[in-house]
Amino acid sequence: MRERFWDTVKLKDMTPQEWEALCDGCGKCCLNKIEFEDTNEIAFTRVACKLLDGESCFCSKYETRRNYVPDCVQLTPAKLPEVAYWLPRTCAYRRLHEGKPLPDWHHLLTGDREAIHRAKASVRGWTVPEYQVSEEDWEDYLIEETP
């Protein structure tokens, strides 16, 4: 990968390896969300996709996830403008799309994949698998996203 590529390369011009490296491993994109039709507001829940490993905060079947979750969004540079609004505010893809820097704890800056967890910026240890919660009850699991 190119040195500090996130500062010098446009998202659309990144290699697949660079694009994937932007993921901070927070797991927040795998949380089920509720979109309120009257306000278009997105609310995050503690209810996680059935494939999210709540300890590692990565998808347990990443390469084949669409076989198990057909509506899983495969984030690409082309799709990013359409879906950035439902990504967490700390997400590297969203931040770079909005012209913001990576968070200080990001592994590309620290060289440490655990920094995100120490910063309490991931979902490690506090999600509930979606198969344990009825969709009608998701509102009982709303969380306030942290900036």
From TrEMBL:
<dbReference type="InterPro" id="IPR005358">
    <property type="entry name" value="Puta_zinc/iron-chelating_dom"/>
</dbReference>
<dbReference type="InterPro" id="IPR008228">
    <property type="entry name" value="UCP006173"/>
</dbReference>
<dbReference type="Pfam" id="PF03692">
    <property type="entry name" value="CxxCxxCC"/>
</dbReference>
<comment type="similarity">
    <text>Belongs to the UPF0260 family.</text>
</comment>
<protein>
    <recommendedName>
        <fullName>UPF0260 protein GR316_05540</fullName>
    </recommendedName>
</protein>
